[in-house]
Design goal:
The complex is a heterotrimer.
Chain A: H1 2-48
Chain B: H1 2-21, H2 23-43, H3 49-73, H4 77-86, H5 89-119, H6 126-151, H7 157-185, H8 193-218
Helix pairs in contact in B: 1-5, 2-3, 2-5, 3-5, 3-6, 3-7, 5-6, 5-8, 6-7, 6-8, 7-8
Chain C: H1 8-26, H2 42-69, H3 72-103, H4 112-133, H5 137-160, H6 162-165, H7 187-226
Classes of the chains: A mainly alpha, B mainly alpha, C mainly alpha.
C-alpha cells in the first residue's frame, strides 16, 4: 500500500514536469515563428532602397 | 608618472577643500558622538563583549556610508566634467579612494577613542583590534567610493547608496566581526592571521576592480 | 546566440531531469542519521544552487562582453540571466527551507551557506533595483554592467572562501570539521546527482534562451509601434 502511494506521487511529479517541458517546447516554437516574421518585416525597408 | 602626479594633485585638492569647508568631517564627527552617546544612554551598561563588537561595527558602517557617499554625489555634474577633462579616469577614482581612505583612518581612530570613552573597553588584544579596524576602514572607504560612483549615475542616489552598498559590504563585515571577536576574547595573534590575510586580499581586490571598472562609468 | 538554435540539448535536459525524478526517488540510498530518506532532496536542492551560480556567471560574462563592445543584446542576456538566476535562488531557498525544517527543526538557522544565499539574493535584487532606477538605455546597460561585475566578484569570494574558513556548518561537507564531502558521496547517488546537475543547468539555459528571445521580440515590436 505504502509502495503504490509512492509510485503515484512520483508519477504525478513526473507528469507535472512533462507538462512543463511541453509548454516550454510550444513556447519555443511560437517564438521561432515570430522571429521569422520579424525577419520579414526587417527585410522590407531594405527592399525599398 | 603622470598618473601619480595627477593623483597627488587631486588628493591635495580634496584635502584642501575639506580643510577649508570643514563640513564633512565635522558633520560625521557629530554624528558619531551623538550616536555613541545615544547608545550609552539606551544600553546603560553593555554586558557582553559580542554586543559591544556588533555595536562598534554597525555605527562605524553607517558613519562610513555617510562620510563616503558625498564623494561623487555632492559634486556637480559640471565640476565633474571639468575634472574629467583634466585627469584620467584612473587618477580620479584612485585619488578619491586615497582621500576617502585617509579620511576613514582619521575618523575610525577618533571613533575608537569616543567609543571606548562612553561604552568601555573590552578588548584583550588591542593591537589586533586596531589593525582590524584600520583594515575595515580602508575596505569601507574603497567599496563605498565605488558604490557612490555607481549611485551618482542614477537619479535617487542616496537611497540607492545603501541598497547597492550593504549587500556587497557584508562579506567584509562578516570577516571584520570574526577577527575583532577573536581580538576581544583572547590575546593571541596566530588564530586571526588567515582572516587578516583574507581581509587585506579583499581590500586589494576591491581597489583593483574599482580601478578597472570606473572608466566605464563616466564615459558617456 | 547561434549556439542556442540547436535544439537537441533541450531534449537532453528534459530527459536528464525526468531521469532525476524517477531514479532520484526510486534508487536505494544510504540510511544516514537525521537525514534518512530526505537525502534525496540533494538531487533537487543542491542542483538549484549550481543552476543559480551558472546563471549569475553567465550574467557576469555578458556584462563584460557588453562593456567591451556595447552590443545591446549582451545587456539583454546579462539582465535576463540574472532574473533566471534569481528564480533558481528562490527555488533553492524553498527546497532548502523545507529540508531544514524537517531535519534541523527550523526554517532558518545561522549558517555560513544560508548567509551566503541571503546575500546573493540581496545583491541581485539590488542589481534589479539599479536597473529599474535608470531610464536611459545605454546608461542603464553600462552602469548595471559595472555593478554586476563588481558584485559578482565579491560574491564569489564570499560564497567560496568564507564557508571554508567558518568554524562549523550544519551543511555536510562544509566547514573545518566536514563530516561528508562530495568525494565520499555514495556511488549510486553519484549516478543520479551528476546527471541531475547537468539537467538543471540545461533547463536554466533553455529558460534564459527563451527569455532573451522574447525580450528581443518585445523590443522589436515596441520599436515598430514607436515609429
Amino acid at each position: 500500500m505504502e509502495q503504490s502511494k509512492l509510485f503515484v506521487v512520483i508519477a504525478v511529479i513526473a507528469l507535472i514536469f512533462t507538462g512543463l517541458s511541453f509548454h516550454l517546447m510550444m513556447l519555443d516554437k511560437k517564438i521561432r515563428s515570430m522571429e521569422r516574421k520579424m525577419k520579414d518585416t526587417e527585410e522590407l525597408p531594405s527592399l525599398k532602397k | 608618472m603622470t598618473l601619480l602626479h595627477e593623483i597627488k594633485h587631486l588628493v591635495i585638492k580634496d584635502i584642501r577643500l575639506e580643510l577649508k569647508q570643514k563640513y564633512a568631517i565635522n558633520g560625521i564627527l557629530l554624528y558619531i558622538v551623538s550616536t555613541i552617546f545615544l547608545c550609552s544612554l539606551a544600553f546603560e551598561r553593555i554586558v557582553m563583549p559580542v554586543t559591544w563588537n556588533a555595536l562598534f561595527w554597525v555605527i562605524l558602517l553607517f558613519a562610513a556610508v555617510n562620510a563616503v557617499s558625498k564623494s561623487f554625489i555632492q559634486e556637480s555634474q559640471g565640476r565633474q566634467l571639468y575634472y574629467y577633462s583634466l585627469a584620467s579616469a584612473h587618477a580620479i577614482i584612485l585619488a578619491k579612494m586615497i582621500y576617502n581612505i585617509l579620511m576613514m583612518i582619521v575618523l575610525s581612530v577618533l571613533f575608537f577613542g569616543v567609543f571606548i570613552l562612553f561604552l568601555g573597553n573590552y578588548i584583550e588584544n588591542q593591537a589586533l583590534f586596531f589593525t582590524t579596524m584600520l583594515l575595515g576602514g580602508i575596505g569601507f572607504a574603497a567599496l563605498f567610493t565605488m558604490v557612490s560612483a555607481i549611485a551618482s549615475r542614477t537619479n535617487n542616489n542616496f537611497a540607492l547608496m545603501a541598497v547597492l552598498g550593504f549587500p556587497i559590504i557584508l562579506p567584509l563585515l562578516v570577516l571584520l566581526i570574526k577577527v575583532s571577536k577573536s581580538a576581544l576574547l583572547d590575546s593571541g595573534w596566530s588564530g586571526a592571521l588567515p582572516s587578516l590575510a583574507a581581509l587585506s586580499g579583499l581590500n586589494i581586490i576591491i581597489i583593483v576592480l574599482s580601478g578597472l571598472l570606473f572608466p566605464y562609468l563616466w564615459r558617456d | 546566440m547561434d549556439l542556442f538554435k540547436v535544439s537537441f540539448w533541450k531534449y537532453l535536459g528534459i530527459l536528464l531531469i525526468l531521469y532525476t525524478i524517477l531514479a532520484g526517488f526510486l534508487i536505494p540510498v544510504p540510511d544516514l542519521p537525521i537525514i534518512h530518506e530526505s537525502i534525496r532532496n540533494l538531487f533537487f536542492h543542491v542542483c538549484m544552487w549550481f543552476g543559480m551560480i551558472f546563471m549569475f556567471g553567465t550574467s557576469m560574462v555578458y556584462s563584460i562582453k557588453y562593456l567591451s563592445g556595447f552590443n545591446e543584446k549582451h545587456d539583454i542576456v546579462a539582465s535576463e540571466a540574472s532574473k533566471t538566476g534569481i528564480m533558481f535562488g528562490i527555488l533553492g531557498l524553498v527546497t532548502g527551507m523545507t529540508w531544514a525544517k524537517n531535519t534541523w527543526g527550523a526554517y532558518w538557522v545561522n549558517d555560513p551557506l544560508l548567509n551566503g544565499a541571503a546575500v546573493t539574493m540581496l545583491v541581485y535584487s539590488a542589481y534589479m533595483v539599479l536597473r529599474n532606477s535608470l531610464d536611459e538605455e545605454h546608461k542603464r546597460a553600462k552602469v548595471s554592467a559595472v555593478y554586476n561585475i563588481f558584485a559578482f566578484v565579491i560574491l564569489i569570494l564570499f560564497l567560496f572562501i568564507l564557508p571554508k574558513m567558518a568554524d562549523a556548518s550544519l551543511h555536510p561537507g562544509k566547514g573545518k570539521d566536514a563530516t561528508m564531502t562530495v568525494k565520499e558521496l555514495d556511488n549510486t547517488m553519484r549516478l543520479v546527482f551528476y546527471p541531475a546537475v547537468v539537467g538543471w543547468i540545461i533547463l536554466g539555459f533553455w529558460f534564459l534562451n527563451l527569455r532573451v528571445r522574447m525580450k528581443v521580440l518585445e523590443n522589436h515590436i515596441n520599436s515598430l509601434s514607436g515609429n
